Amino acid sequence: MRFWFHTFGCRVNQYETQVVRERMLAVGSLAVSDWESADLCLINTCTVTQEADRDALRLLRRIARRNPAARLVVTGCLASRDPQAILEAAPSALVVGNEGKEELPSLLGCSSVPAFAGVSAFCGHTRAFLKVQDGCNMRCGFCIIPSVRPVLWSKPIQDLEAEARRLVAAGYREIVPCGVRLGRYLALEGGGRVDFAGMLERLLGIPGDFRIRLSSLEITDLTDRLIALMAGSGGRLCPSLHIPLQSGSEGVLRRMRRWYSAAFYARRVEALRSRLPEAGVFADVMTGFPGETEAEFLESRAFIEGLGFSGLHVFRYSKRAGTQAARNPGQLPERVVLERARALRDLDRSLRAAFAARAVGSWRRVLMKDRGPAPEGLAENFLCVRLPEDPGPGFHRVRVERSAGPLACGLLDPKGPGRQEP
Fold first, then answer.
1. Residue-wise pLDDT tens digits, 205-251
2. Which domains are assigned to the chain?
3. pTM of the model as a whole
4. In a 3-state reduction of DSSP, which class is residue 134?
């Protein structure tokens, strides 16, 4: 059987797709690069925004129209939230929500494969994503995810360690633990418990030349213990964090039903920078939340400018049926939302340029991610560094010579990878 997979959305989704991909390969199926020649097409969907829904449904209609003989399987968050929309786009599709993802391998004919023991590779990536947690039980006013991934789950620590060791042995030099609420990791072991920081300590104890980079982490999970662990790891726990902010306006945060204040957020970021002044700090920010006034938008923008992020991921508010915000008064005109999002994206470009400019003259340990005529790698603090030539895979010691917008441009140390310090 020739199969083609496509994933929308987060790292958790990408990991879950890789699980099914490996099991399909194990029973002799052949992965193909285009859906038009596939016998089986599996689409793993996202539903965090209206755009995510539209993108997935557009692809489903195209496949159903141009490759009607293919078996079409649709899973993921949109499949859990609105299976009817999927069937309207592709009436012959098999729809399997998140709650049925564990049954996908057997549904696809992989029942003869041994029980799942984690992934051993990560197709198309130089970094390996490692799902450690699932589910969210918070009820932010704008977010639909708790209704499609409601059950908190953490991978047993022994399974997690074994999977990480396998990925390191396969040559991956950066492991990215991921989860829906990553910092809520909590596993039982014997008569005790292993929490998020304890899990990271265990992963850092695995031998090998690799580093760990955290994916999205809530500000209330940025504890003093985690900061100390990062500061004492010698760069193995990367000093870079993506910490959702959503808004820098206290009033908007309250209406969003976020569980922290902007002032608390700022204190925790400053606690991080007091130990790791060059850490990369990135944030999700949203504009256009119902009732957001011009003054609140300007308050949020000023907060973001004052905190000096390394970069932003800008979202326009997306109305999600079933959330509190969808029922709120004060839904903003699309024109206003677009203008505010454009202003925040302009701010993002200036923040990324400043982040790159501050790195000039420093030494960085760079892991290559894009090879070829314009090779680029990631530094430990998530700075993107372009090199004049492809040095090959793995870590390389690089001196940042100049910045070019959001990119840093560097030269390889002729003495070899070495450590970060000159």
1. 999 999 999 989 999 999 999 999 999 999 999 999 999 999 999 99
2. 2-107 (3.40.50.12160), 124-238 (3.30.750.210), 363-412 (2.40.50)
3. 0.94
4. strand
